[in-house]
Amino acid sequence: MSAKALEHFEARKNGVLDSRPLERRMNVRTKVRWPVVFRRRNGESLETTTENLSSRGFYCLSQTPIARDELLVCWLTMPTHDPSGAFGTALLECRVQVVRSEVASTEGLFGVACRIEDFRLAVRR
Best label site of 11, 20, 28, 101, fewest CB within 10 Å? Predict the structure, then answer.
């Protein structure tokens, strides 16, 4: 069955047309609001917060536009919890590529979708 025919079949379950768009992402996204700091090649830093995250990337809103295909280094601050009950944070350093950049709202924000190319645990606090 072709991909187009499969889309039609999936959208018409039980004879009822489902108008919701089909999910095309390869990985499940989780809604998380983690601080992220981007560093551009010119040394400029941009601070924002993730909207959602998967094992392969994340989406955030930025006050500054970031060009599609731009390569950046960023740091995600993640909450941690260990079995002793202590809470802290870990800093994940990532090399990312911007795969989508769009005007996100009338408030002057830009939606930025990033694919994680490489990462390492930088600091645990």
Answer: 20
Name the DSSP class of 10: H
- Average confidence (pLDDT) over 69-87: 90
CA distance 90 to 97: 22
Which residues does 59 contact at the CB level (< 8 Å), separation at least 6? 29, 50, 51, 52, 53, 111, 112, 113, 114
In a domain, 19, yes or no: no
- How would residue 69 be classed by pLDDT, with cut points 50, 70 and 90? very high
Instruction: Phi first, then psi: give them for residue 6, nearest 5 degrees.
Output: -65, -40
Whether 12 is in a domain gets the answer no
Query: How is 16-68 classified by DSSP, letter by letter?
Result: ----SPPP--SS--B----EEEEE-TTS-EEEEEEEEE-SSEEEEEESS---T
Predicted local confidence at residue 5, as pLDDT: 44
